[in-house]
Design brief:
This is Acyl-CoA thioester hydrolase. The protein has three helices and six strands. It is an alpha+beta fold and 141 residues long. It has a single domain, classed as Hotdog Thioesterase (Thiol Ester Dehydrase, Chain A). Strands 1, 2, 3, 4, 5 and 6 form a six-stranded antiparallel β-sheet that branches.
């Protein structure tokens, strides 16, 4: 599995009263990592919205909180396609993981969809599909 890597740090504002990362912040970490993955693919999401009138949205998400992250931890978020048929029509399945060193702290399997600004699902643009297809040859790490 070829994975894009995004590094971030846990700040005080990310933690709860117990001093561990508040659960919703893991979703922020993986969202930022997905945005950087798309950017690394060479896709400009703003241009897609303004030019083609399409955006990406999370359709489904399954998350597992395995271990707590704490203040000042350096985290690595990996993003990878989830299976050989990860891209189909208007749907893209991804697997994301949050790591602290060799410890996996959080995993998420999610489905992204491509949709119009009115909320109608449409196929991912050809350019995006081509970038995904060539990712195995030139991974954006």
């Amino acid at each position: 599995m070829i994975a894009h890597r995004f590094t971030c740090r846990v700040y005080y504002e990310d933690t709860d009263m117990a001093g561990i990362v508040y659960h919703a912040n893991y979703l922020k970490y993986v969202e930022r990592a997905r945005s950087e993955w798309v950017r690394a693919l060479g896709v400009d999401q703003r241009a897609l919205k303004e030019g083609a009138g399409v955006v990406f949205a999370v359709r489904a998400l399954q998350a597992d909180f395995l271990r707590p992250a704490r203040l000042d931890d350096e985290l690595t978020v990996t993003t990878a396609l989830d299976g050989a048929d990860a891209v189909r029509g208007a749907r893209l399945r991804l697997r994301q993981e949050v790591w602290r060193g060799g410890d996996c702290l959080f995993t998420a399997t999610l489905t992204l969809i491509c949709m119009t600004l009115r909320g109608r699902a449409v196929r991912f643009p050809d350019d995006f599909r081509q970038q995904i297809a060539s990712w195995g040859e030139n991974p954006p790490v």
